[in-house]
Design brief:
four-stranded antiparallel β-sheet; 1 helix
Length: 131
């Protein structure tokens, strides 16, 4: 059974950094677009970052541009989210997701930032940023 396992969350202070990892167990990241989403208390789950199956394209939500970076290492079947300059507004459960289709990365941002493009999800890792 293919599973996504997130790690690296924790409790930090504003301005600190965290590095989240998402490892694919029983499967691969190779040729799959990968993404991170997050859900803050009382809010809907929202898109954070995506990286294309080739690694050549990525996109971040405006709120984290300049602070977060997404990367991948297909030799380790792992995707990363480096988070710098954390603020309390970044507090959320962070979820990793894998695209439903091999080789998919829609040039329309509205598509590859939407949950419907992903069919494999991790359980999430909690990130809490204190002020």
């Amino acid at each position: 059974q293919v599973q996504l396992v997130e790690s690296g969350g924790g409790l930090v202070r504003a301005g600190d950094s965290l590095s989240l990892s998402c490892a694919v167990s029983g499967g691969t990241t190779y040729l799959y677009t990968m993404a991170w989403f997050r859900r803050a208390p009382g809010s809907e789950r929202e898109f954070v970052a995506t990286i294309s199956w080739s690694g050549e394209s990525s996109q971040l939500v405006d709120a984290v541009k300049g602070r977060f970076a997404i990367s991948r290492d297909d030799s380790k079947n792992t995707v990363y989210l480096q988070m710098n300059g954390l603020i309390p507004g970044d507090s959320a459960i962070y979820y990793c997701a894998r695209a439903a289709t091999v080789g998919w990365y829609n040039p329309n941002p509205a598509e590859h930032t939407a949950e419907r493009g992903y069919d494999l999800w991790g359980q999430g890792t909690q990130v809490t940023v204190s002020s």
